[in-house]
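Course assignment 3, question 2. Fill in each field.
Student: A.L.
Task: Predict the tertiary structure for the chain below.
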Amino acid sequence: MATYFVSDIHGQYQAFQRALRDGSFSPQAGDRLYVIGDMIDRGPESREVLFELFRLRQAYPNQVFLLKGNHEQMLEDWLKGQGNPELYLRYNGGDATIRSLLGHHPLRRAFLHSMPSIAEQEEARRLILTEYPNLLPSLSSLPLYMELPADPRSGAPAVLLVHAGIRPGIPLQKQNPEDLLWIREPFYLYYEGDRPIVFGHTPVPRLPGYEGHGPWRRGKLVGIDGGAAYRRGILLVEWPSLQSIFVPVRDAQPDVYVRII
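Answer field:
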């Protein structure tokens, strides 16, 4: 039985599937998978990533766990008609997710290389919520963090999983959700706590002192965002060894599929 962490898949379904295959991930054998947010946006197959993970979680509720990232929050807000649609659609890759969810519907063209009108957004929202009635409740129910206890059998210490990080010096229960989803430098530059924290959100090449391979480490911090949002790749990290598999987006073959049944 192995435990794997991954984050920031960003719609790169092929690279994600290859990482699972290369890691021999098998929930039938008792393996566990924790996805630490940002399953969607920017990449071409957000729908495939999201619904495959929802399906896996339903089939293996004690072995597949999904956390919320800032991109899931932005999609949730957009589906509710809230938030800043231009920030989401134009600057954070939400347009790719809406096109993915619309499939072959002609309205998808409105979300390609331009800012769709309010009316086009309302119609797309209606179509998506009608086609996928469980999508909004599923997004809303994603937890912002997860605390894993120590495991004496594997020697794994207790660890906190959170998409972006925490604000140092503030108790976990009093953290601002905005920080849990968006924080960067105040967390990874200044956290000095005793509790291990595994996070995504900031691609490892952008973290200070990154050595160029595997997850980023500083003290009790482990960063695992492989940079798929910028077409770098997916990091699948085994816990607690931190051995990892990196699949570059460019190397993922379109005919590689892993479907866990």
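Instructor remarks: Confidence is low (pLDDT under 50) at residues 255-261. The CA atoms of residues 99 and 108 lie 5 Å apart.
Grade: pending
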